[in-house]
C-alpha cells in the first residue's frame, strides 16, 4: 500500500531544518501500524507526506502503486480525496453541523444527492455505534463520540487507507482504548491504518510499531 524510498524532507529557513532523513518504509495492505517517537521527531511531517498534504525533497513515495511526486495541486487533491481518510487529534468537526451532516460532508463535495448522502452517512454512524446521536452537534458529544463521528466521516469516501495523527491525544485512557478498539475492528475488516502516537498504550494495540527519532526510523 505504501512504499517510501530514501525520503528526505527539510523545512526552509536561515538554517534549513532537515526533518526526515533517508526514510525507507513499506506498509502492506491490511496492516495496522503506529509511528511513535518524541515530540518534534518528524512524525506529523511523515504522516503529512503519506497523506499527500505535504511534499518531500528527494526520494520516492508510491501509494498503492502510484508515484506521488511533483503532482499538481489538483491531482494531489484528487488522490487524497479518493484514497485517504484522515483522523485528527482535535476531531476537526464543523461545530454548527450535526453528526450526520459532518459525516455526509465529503459526499456533498462529490455531488452526491442529499438523500443518498444522508443514507450513507447514517450507515457509517451506525457502524460506529453512533446512530442515535445523528442529530447532535459536536458540542453535545463526548470526546470519544466526536472521534467516532470523525472516523465515520473518514470512512464515508471508502478510502484505501486511514491516517490518524494522535487520534487519542485529546482523550482519557479509557476512551482512548475504546477508540483504539474501533481502529482494531476496522483493521479486522481489512482497512489499512497508520496511527501516529506518542502514547505507548496506543502503540501496543497496533500490530507493528515504527519508531522514529530525530527524523530517522530506528
Ligand atoms: P512530531 O509530529 O513528531 O512532533 P513534526 O513532524 O511536527 O514532529 O515536526 C518535526 C520538526 O519540524 C519540529 O522541529 C518542528 O518544529 C518542525 N516543523 C514542523 N512543521 C514545520 C513547518 N511547517 N515549518 C518549519 N518547521 C516545521
Ligand atoms: Mg505531531
Automatic annotation (TrEMBL):
Residues 2-218 form the ABC transporter domain. InterPro entries: AAA+_ATPase (IPR003593), ABC_transporter-like_ATP-bd (IPR003439), ABC_transporter-like_CS (IPR017871), MacB-like_ATP-bd (IPR017911), P-loop_NTPase (IPR027417). It comes from the Bacteria. SUPFAM superfamilies: P-loop containing nucleoside triphosphate hydrolases. Keywords: ATP-binding, Nucleotide-binding, Translocase, Transport. GO terms for cellular component: membrane protein complex. GO terms for molecular function: ATP binding; ATP hydrolysis activity; transmembrane transporter activity. Belongs to the ABC transporter superfamily. Macrolide exporter (TC 3.A.1.122) family. This is ABC transporter ATP-binding protein. It comes from Duncaniella dubosii.
Amino acid at each position: 500500500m505504501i512504499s517510501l524510498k530514501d525520503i528526505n524532507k527539510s523545512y526552509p529557513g536561515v538554517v534549513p531544518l532537515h526533518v526526515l532523513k533517508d526514510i525507507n518504509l513499506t506498509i502492506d495492505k491490511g496492516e495496522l501500524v503506529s509511528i511513535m517517537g518524541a515530540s518534534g521527531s518528524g512524525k506529523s511531517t511523515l504522516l503529512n507526506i503519506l497523506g499527500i498534504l505535504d511534499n518531500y525533497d528527494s526520494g520516492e513515495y508510491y501509494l498503492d502503486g502510484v508515484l506521488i511526486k511533483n503532482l499538481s495541486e489538483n491531482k494531489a487533491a484528487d488522490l487524497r480525496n479518493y484514497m485517504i481518510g484522515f483522523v485528527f487529534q482535535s476531531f476537526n468537526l464543523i461545530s454548527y453541523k450535526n453528526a450526520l451532516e459532518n459525516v455526509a460532508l465529503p459526499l456533498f463535495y462529490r455531488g452526491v444527492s442529499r438523500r443518498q448522502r444522508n443514507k450513507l452517512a447514517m450507515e457509517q454512524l451506525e457502524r460506529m455505534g453512533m446512530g442515535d446521536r445523528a442529530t447532535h452537534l459536536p458540542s453535545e458529544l463526548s470526546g470519544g463520540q466526536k472521534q467516532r463521528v470523525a472516523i465515520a466521516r473518514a470512512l464515508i469516501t471508502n478510502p484505501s487507507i486511514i491516517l490518524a495523527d494522535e487520534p487519542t491525544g485529546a482523550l482519557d485512557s479509557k476512551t482512548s482504548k475504546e477508540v483504539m478498539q474501533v481502529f482494531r475492528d476496522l483493521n479486522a475488516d481489512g482497512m489499512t491504518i497508520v496511527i501516529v502516537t506518542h502514547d505507548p498504550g496506543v502503540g501496543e494495540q497496533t500490530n507493528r510499531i515504527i519508531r522514529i527519532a530525530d527524523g530517522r526510523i530506528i
